[in-house]
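Need a sequence for this fold. Nothing fancy.
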């Protein structure tokens, strides 16, 4: 009895003989096509993963500084800094005088507080949500589509792994 003609040697249903399909790197600025090693890979290289991790830390800091507790912590940090400067001045060290019209260290422009960071990894653009859509999460439609594509692919992969309906690569009994 020979091998079944319809059966092929795939490790997972929905996965081709060469692994998952080629896809674009999610990191803004890279967006290279790559062959992922795992079905849920979002980034093409270790450098892109590190850059995405750095972006997540930056975005978390942006969100934290918008909260009342974050602003309070930042004010206390600024007070401690000014106290250190005062102590250095009293000790006789030369301190560069800052003019009144220059922004001081740690002081953010008022309009930055109203702006929100984009939700796409690697996108450092701050944008002001429109009145029409105050829950806006992305700076542009390209960023929105890139993340939507990834989330839809991962949702489809999740239903396949759970034994949900499969749209392709069905192995007949």
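Here you go.
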């Amino acid at each position: 009895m020979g091998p079944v003609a319809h059966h092929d040697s795939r490790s997972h249903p929905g996965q081709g003989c060469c692994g998952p399909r080629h896809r674009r790197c999610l990191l803004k600025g890279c967006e290279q096509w790559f062959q992922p090693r795992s079905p849920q890979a979002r980034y093409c290289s270790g450098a892109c993963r590190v850059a995405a991790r750095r972006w997540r830390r930056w975005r978390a800091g942006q969100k934290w500084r918008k909260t009342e507790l974050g602003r309070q912590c930042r004010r206390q940090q600024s007070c401690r800094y000014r106290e250190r400067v005062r102590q250095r001045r009293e000790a006789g060290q030369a301190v560069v005088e800052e003019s009144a019209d220059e922004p001081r260290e740690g002081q953010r422009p008022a309009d930055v507080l109203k702006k929100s960071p984009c939700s796409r990894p690697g996108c450092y653009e701050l944008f002001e949500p429109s009145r029409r859509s105050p829950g806006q999460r992305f700076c542009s439609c390209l960023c929105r589509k890139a993340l939507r594509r990834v989330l839809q692919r991962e949702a489809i992969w999740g239903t396949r792994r759970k034994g949900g309906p499969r749209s392709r690569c069905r192995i007949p009994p």
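For context: The longest strand covers residues 23-24.
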